[in-house]
Prior knowledge:
By secondary structure, the protein is mostly helical. The chain has one domain (12-62). The chain is 55% helix and 0% strand. The chain is built from 3 helices and no strands. Helix 2 packs across helix 3 (45-62).
Amino acid sequence: MKKPSKPSKLKEEHLYYLDDLRESGVTNMYGATPFLQEDFEDLNIKESRDILLYWMKTFSDRHNIGEKK
Length: 69
């Protein structure tokens, strides 16, 4: 599977933030875009969605989940 390209505004802190948000159970991660926008005011809705999508697509690889073939 091709690795998704990183969004231009992506910072490591965004990924850690989303990991923490997931762990908190405050929201279903499909609804995390507004949380990103609220806590990172420099992100617009498209940038927030792009970062969330990247986080979702790379979650398993970043957390070593599943077997690699």
